[in-house]
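To: structure desk
From: M.T.
Subject: fold request, one chain
Message: Could you run this one when you get a chance? Sequence is below, nothing fancy, just the single chain.
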Amino acid sequence: MCKMTRRKFIQLCTSALFALGLGRYIPASAAGNLIKYPRQIITRDSATSRTIMWQSDGAKRDAALLLTAPDGQQQTYIPEGNTLLQDNTTTTFYTVRLTNLTPGTHYQGIIQMADATVTLPIVTAASEISAFKALLIDDSQCGESYEPFAQLLEKALARHPQAAFLADIGDLTDNGQSSWHWDSFLAALLAGRAKDMPFAPVMGNHECYGLDWRFALPRRYLASFSVPDSGSRNFPGYYYSFDYGPAHFIVLNTQFEELDGLKPGLLQEELLWLKHDAMGTRNPWKIVLMHKDVIAYDEYQPGVGHAGGISDVGHDFMKAFDMLGIDLVLTGHMQTYRNRGHIYHEAPSDHGPTYLMFGPAGNERYTVPPDMTFDKVSLDQSDPDRYRNYMTLAVTPAKCIATCHREDGSTVDRVTLTK
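Reply: Done. C-alpha cells follow.
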C-alpha cells in the first residue's frame, strides 16, 4: 500500500471537518481600508526599478500612484488592474512598474483611490553594491491565526534592520484559494517595515490547493505578485530571477505534482530557462530559491515510488545545478532546518552547490526524522517553543554567509562559502 502523503492527510482531515460543519473558513472582514496591503515587489534590478502593488475589494476603480523625487519632481502613474473572483470574494489587484529610477535615491510614493491615500517610501539600491544582507523566511503558513508568523517577522526585522530585501520560500499561506488566509498573511507580512522593502515571493505547494484541498491553479498567488518577467508565455509568474549586488538569485517552481495534471509542461520549460538564465549571469554568486527540498525524508515521492533518499525535485534539478555552477540552494517544505553541505547526485563533483533547508516561520509543524546519509546539522523539533526559524544571507563578492536563526535570536547553524 502506498504511503499517505501529507497533502492527502490534510485533505481527509479537512473533509471530516466540513462534514461536521466545522470546516468553513472565518470570512474576511468586509470592512477595512479601500487601499489594502500596499507592497513593493522585487525587480530584476533594484537600483533602477521597483514594482508597486496594492489591492482593493470589489471591481476595478480609478487609481493612481504619485511618485515624488528628492528634487520635488512628480510623476503620475496609472496602474494596471486585474480583478479576481475567488472564495466568494471579488478582489482587484493594482500594479505599477517603476523604471528608469535613480540608484540610491529616496522617493515618496502616494497611492490614491477616491478619497483614500497611502504613502509609501520607495528607496532604490545603490548602483554598485559590494555587500548586502537579505532576510529569508519560509513556510509562513498558519492555522487559526497568523499572529505567530507576525511575531517572528517583527523580531527578525528588528534584529536585522539593514536587510536589503525579504524573501518567502513558499507556502506563504495555508490555502491558495482562501481569502481569509491571504488577507491574514498579507496583513501580518506588511504590518511593519516589510512594506517599505522589496519582497521576493516563491510559490509553494499550498499556493496550489483549492478550498477543497484538491490541486488547483495558483490564481491568487499569480494575481498577488507581479514578479520579474521570465519570458514565458505558458507560465508567466511561476519562476523568475533577479540580481542584487554580487548575487544572482534564481527562483524556481517545484510544484510539478500539483500542477502537471492542470497545466502540463512546467518542468521541461523551466529546465531550459534555468540553463539559459544561469549561464547568462556574470555575478560571482548563483543562489537558487525553491520550495520543495532535494531530499524526500518521510514524504512519498510519486516519481520514484518511495519515500527517503533524493526527492523527485532533486532528481529533476540537481544534475543541472552541478553543471551550471550553482553555489547555494535554499529550500523549505519540511518545516525544519537541515544542512547537507554538498550532495552528489551522480558522480562526485567539485562544482555542486551547498543545500540548506529551513523554516517554518508560521505555526504549522511536522516532525521530520533526520536523514543520517545526508544531514550534517539538523534542528531538534521536539521543543514546541523553539522550532520556528528564519535565515539571513550576508554576501560580498568573495564570501556568502548563510545563518539560520531561531525565533528567540539564537543561532541554529552558520555556513560560510568563499570564492
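Reply (cont.): The two ends are 48 Å apart (CA to CA). Let me know if you need anything else for the meeting.
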